[in-house]
Amino acid sequence: MSRKVEVWDPGEIARRWRELAERRRAHFIELDRSGRWRRYYTEQEFLASVRKVAAEIESWDALAGPELAAFSKAS
User: Fold this and answer.
1) CA-angle at 59, arms to 50 and 47, nearest 5°
2) Where are the domains of the chain?
3) What is the pTM of this model?
4) Please, is 21 exposed, middle or buried when counting C-beta atoms within 10 Å of its C-beta (0-12, 13-18, 19+)?
5) Are 37 and 65 in contact (CB under 8 A)?
6) Who has the most CB within 10 Å: 49, 50, 60, 66?
7) What Cα–Cα distance (Å) separates residue 18 from each residue in 4, 26, 32, 33, 41?
């Protein structure tokens, strides 16, 4: 009656959160290109949100490990 415990790789979790942050950044890029951001944000709020997403991506890069950080900087 042994139970297997699923162990999550912290690097994999960080990579998944980073992918989510990348999707958020892509959304902000699309808002910027289309000009739709003006419907939802003031200019200061929009810029703060973009900066926050960029900082989140950097944080997740650091947590995901050196192989992802090296890949991200190369692309």
Assistant:
1) 10
2) 12-74
3) 0.73
4) buried
5) no
6) 60
7) 28, 12, 21, 22, 24
